Design the sequence.
């Protein structure tokens, strides 16, 4: 990064040079409903895991889009897949699929794809 | 005269091949049983359990009772082919041993009408009766064959909207099977045209053949040869085709009666299940993905195919993922295969890379509440989105003076089943361990839960030593032992069976008893085992909200058809799903009950 002579705390900076666009594209392809997210935070407010820790599902999906990969997988592992977030989301975002697929993408394993008419793409 | 002719060779090769391959396959599979399965077999093998197994194998393998209950004609088709052929073999063997009291080679029974003339056996007392009986049986099998051909063109009258798309091997196997019986009739008729033997059917057709000049020894030989080739081909292809289910189902029934069940990993027992599927396709029609979304390539039959068939194995993962885990196919399958467990095995295998112990250290900070003399109440994550349910349960506990500990009142830990359903077995285990520790340390005497998913989990996946009840069971118990007094109002309601409670745990009567005590319960068209999934359950991670809504709407229409005032269910998730439709009031059983308490 270019040094402009002033400091930014590392925790608050976003380094978009790190962004792996293919990861984002893949996620949007696997979970198209993610495009509908308005960042309302309903998922976070209802989250079971958030009742115990600072686990914040909305922040996680923003982090993923903003190249903050550092402890993302560790955060995602706190999710219990209970599905409350999916049920409350006003935009119909499939948040559980988002979490599972983010973990798969971060771990570099292939995921399944769907096609509305045919079910699974074979 | 000779008891041998060249044409028996294809048949004999087929039988030998089938025998060797089957023994080899079964031997390998049995060796593949896991430790627990072996222990169960060792424990139960010298008990009387083989008796019910014989009865079930007869009833299902030959009479096809479960299929008959679904559709008479379809049952007749399967029965005439299976039982009819079985009888042809047995009666044929008796006939041969009566005709050749000094013994005879195996094939005589199969090609009896040919050798009867060639090798002139003794004319035993009931020879004519046997000839007629064999003809009757052949006619019986042929009638089933005719129905099978008819089903290929038009399957509706046999109760099936969709039939299975078969692989090439299965189609070749079917073709050779279909050839066997017409060839047998032809061969016997030509022999009869020359020698005048056979029963009513063969004699009649032989007469016709004779009158048109077909009484020709060369033709006779050719026909018997074709019959033998059809048999040989079928036997050679059988171990690699759907027809392996004929033998495998018998083994599976026996193992099941011994108490063996499938585990979370693919075992030899799974191989028996894979091979016991007859690819009948009965699992396709009921599946909500097929009915509402026209997704027709993921149902039980295709899922098993994708695991079994090496070329199709790359499809196993996408197929296994696309399923609601609603168990409708499990309820429909006439072989009672553990389809959801097998599907879960695939999911677990595909999550190995990302399934670890999870980041659940945070659970360390929750502690149980000393609950000696209390019951533990576990609302479940979803019940926290429908607080009416938990409030009602608290009101019911208070009305009967039952002390309770609301385990997940403020801090909701999941039961672990949603993780397990998606294949995260290790993460699910961590949650189970925490919950078990809490329940055991609390010393509560009973566990009551409001969510059928949690209920199934606590009941089947946990190993708790205290009784576990769903709140419908608990309320029903309170009513029948007189602790809870309810008034009956004039509401008309329909009841939705949640998948996990009904098909999952077999709880159908308790909720109905409770509702009959408080309201007027109307019947719906598809209920109990046939109940429709609400579409919002946690099984399928791939569906989007429009697809879920379509599935929900079908279930809702079924519930609205009898014109109720209220829809009642017993699952927070189903309740949410139907509430979203905003048609009429939707209540949980606990809410109905809490509103009608007249306890002093
Ligand atoms: S509730 Fe839905 S729309 Fe709101 S932040 Fe979460 S995912 Fe996005
Ligand atoms: S599924 Fe995961 S992220 Fe969603 S509410 Fe449950 S624990 Fe939170
Ligand atoms: S899974 Fe069951 S219902 Fe489906 S094709 Fe196989 S045997 Fe038939
Ligand atoms: S469990 Fe339900 S959704 Fe899955 S294949 Fe069976 S019927 Fe279809």
Sequence:
């Amino acid at each position: 990064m270019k040094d402009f002579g002033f400091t930014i705390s590392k925790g608050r900076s976003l380094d978009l040079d790190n962004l792996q666009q293919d990861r984002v594209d893949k996620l949007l392809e696997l979970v198209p409903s993610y495009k509908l997210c308005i960042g309302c935070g309903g998922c976070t407010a209802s989250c079971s895991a958030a009742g115990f820790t600072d686990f914040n599902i909305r922040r996680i999906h923003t982090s993923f889009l903003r190249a903050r990969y550092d402890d993302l997988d560790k955060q995602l592992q706190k999710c219990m897949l209970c599905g409350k977030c999916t049920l409350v989301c006003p935009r119909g975002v499939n948040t559980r699929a988002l979490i599972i697929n983010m973990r798969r993408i971060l771990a570099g394993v292939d995921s399944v794809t769907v096609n509305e008419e045919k079910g699974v793409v074979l | 005269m000779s008891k041998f002719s060249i044409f028996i060779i294809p048949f004999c090769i087929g039988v030998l091949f089938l025998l060797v391959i089957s023994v080899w396959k079964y031997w390998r599979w049995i060796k593949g049983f896991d430790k627990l399965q072996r222990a169960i077999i060792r424990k139960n093998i010298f008990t009387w359990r083989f008796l019910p197994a014989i009865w079930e194998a007869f009833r299902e393998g030959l009479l096809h009772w479960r299929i008959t209950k679904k559709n008479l004609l379809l049952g007749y088709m399967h029965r005439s082919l299976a039982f009819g052929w079985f009888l042809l073999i047995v009666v044929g063997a008796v006939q041969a041993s009566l005709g050749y009291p000094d013994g005879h080679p195996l094939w005589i029974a199969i090609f009896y009408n040919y050798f009867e003339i060639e090798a002139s056996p003794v004319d035993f007392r009931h020879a004519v009766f046997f000839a007629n009986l064999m003809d009757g049986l052949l006619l019986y099998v042929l009638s089933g064959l005719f129905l099978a051909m008819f089903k290929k063109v038009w399957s509706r009258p046999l109760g099936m909207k969709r039939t299975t798309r078969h692989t090439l091997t299965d189609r070749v196997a079917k073709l050779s099977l279909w050839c066997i019986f017409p060839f047998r009739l032809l061969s016997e008729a030509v022999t009869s045209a020359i020698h005048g033997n056979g029963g009513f059917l063969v004699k009649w057709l032989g007469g016709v053949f004779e009158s048109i000049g077909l009484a020709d020894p060369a033709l006779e030989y050719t026909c018997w040869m074709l019959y033998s080739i059809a048999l040989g081909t079928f036997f050679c292809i059988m171990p690699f085709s759907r027809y392996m289910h004929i033998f495998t189902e018998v083994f599976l029934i026996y193992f099941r009666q011994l108490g063996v069940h499938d585990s979370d990993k693919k075992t030899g027992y799974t191989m028996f299940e894979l091979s016991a599927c007859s690819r009948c396709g009965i699992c396709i029609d009921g599946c909500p993905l097929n009915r509402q979304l026209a997704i027709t390539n993921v149902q039980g039959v295709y899922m098993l195919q994708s695991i079994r068939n090496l070329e199709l194995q790359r499809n196993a993962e996408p197929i296994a993922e696309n399923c609601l885990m609603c168990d409708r196919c499990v309820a429909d399958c006439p072989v009672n295969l553990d389809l959801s467990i097998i599907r879960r095995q695939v999911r677990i295998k595909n999550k190995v890379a990302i399934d670890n112990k999870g980041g659940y250290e945070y659970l360390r900070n929750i502690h149980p509440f000393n609950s000696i003399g209390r019951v533990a109440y576990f609302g479940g994550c979803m019940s926290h989105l429908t607080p009416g349910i938990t409030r009602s349960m608290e009101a019911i506990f208070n009305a009967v003076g039952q002390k309770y500990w609301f385990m997940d009142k403020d801090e909701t830990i999941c039961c672990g089943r949603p993780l397990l359903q998606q294949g995260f077995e290790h993460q699910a285990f961590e949650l189970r361990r925490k919950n078990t520790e809490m329940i055991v340390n609390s010393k509560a005497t009973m566990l009551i839960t409001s969510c059928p998913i949690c209920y199934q989990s606590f009941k089947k996946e946990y190993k708790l030593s205290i009784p576990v009840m769903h709140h419908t069971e608990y309320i029903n118990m309170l009513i029948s032992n007189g602790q809870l007094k309810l008034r009956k109002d004039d509401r008309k309601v329909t009841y939705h069976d949640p998948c996990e409670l009904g098909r999952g745990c077999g709880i159908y009567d308790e909720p109905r008893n409770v509702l009959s005590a408080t309201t007027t319960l109307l019947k719906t068209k598809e209920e109990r085992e046939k109940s429709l999934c609400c579409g919002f359950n946690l099984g399928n991670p791939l569906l989007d909200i429009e697809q879920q809504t379509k599935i929900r709407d079908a279930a809702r229409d079924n519930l609205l058809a009898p014109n109720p005032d209220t829809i009642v269910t017993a699952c927070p998730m189903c309740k949410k799903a139907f509430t979203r439709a905003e048609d009429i009031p939707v209540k949980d059983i606990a809410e109905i009950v809490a509103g009608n308490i007249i306890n002093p």
Summary: Chain B has a mean pLDDT of 93. Chain B touches chain A through 50 residues (CB under 8 Å). The first helix of chain B runs from residue 8 to 31. Residues 20 and 140 of chain B are 31 Å apart (CA to CA).
